[in-house]
Each structure stands twice: as structure tokens, then as C-alpha cells.
Write a structure and sequence with these properties.
About 40% of the residues lie in helices and about 20% in strands. With about 100 residues, it is of the alpha+beta class. Strand 3 (about 20-25) and strand 4 (about 30-35) form a beta hairpin. The longest helix has 19 residues, at about 40-60. The radius of gyration is 13 Å and the shape is globular. The two termini are about 15 Å apart.
Length: about 100
């Protein structure tokens, strides 16, 4: 898998030598997984974590001054889970840099 769609936006999945397990670059539409993370299970949980960050950014929740529960639940339910369901049975098959 080299990309995913979240809320209709395409995010490239890339591997880089970074300190964190993963990070989401919204402006670049990238989810980065550390090349140091080699366990497939850890890769998938890291991807899932970064996908949630993307869903919250798309929904505008990351820009809220106060976090109300309902918009967060709706973002996860309507943006994150459909994207996760679409890729959850796949494996990350990316070359390290």
C-alpha cells in the first residue's frame, strides 16, 4: 500500500528516517512511518494513529479552541473508520529510504 484516502483526500504513505514512529503532514498529504519501525503490527498501529490525526485535521477539530466530544466522535466514525476499513486487511509494503 502506497496511499490511502481519508475523507476523499489522498495521503501518500512514505517511509523516512525520523525519530518518531510516525507523523502526519497534512499540507503535503503524507503519512510518514519511521524506517526504523520494521514490525508489521507496529507499522499498522502507527498508521492507524496517524490516520486519526488526519481525520481530526480534515474535520477541523485540530483548530478548535475547545474540544467537544460529538465532533470528535463523528470525525472518527465518518472519516477515520471508513478509511481504516478500506485498508485494514492490507499490509504496508514500502521500501525504506
Amino acid at each position: 500500500m502506497t496511499h490511502i484516502y481519508i475523507g476523499g483526500l489522498r495521503f501518500e504513505i512514505v517511509r523516512e528516517n525520523i525519530h518518531e514512529y510516525g507523523l502526519m503532514r497534512f499540507d503535503d498529504r503524507q503519512i510518514v512511518i519511521s524506517s526504523n519501525v520494521t514490525d508489521p503490527g507496529v507499522c499498522m498501529t502507527t498508521l492507524r494513529h496517524e490516520m486519526i490525526h488526519a481525520a481530526l485535521e480534515i474535520a477541523g477539530i485540530s483548530h478548535m479552541r475547545r474540544y467537544d466530544e460529538e465532533p470528535i466522535v463523528r470525525a472518527i466514525e465518518n472519516l477515520f473508520f471508513p478509511a481504516w476499513d478500506a485498508i485494514s486487511n492490507q499490509t504496508i509494503n514500502l521500501k525504506s529510504p
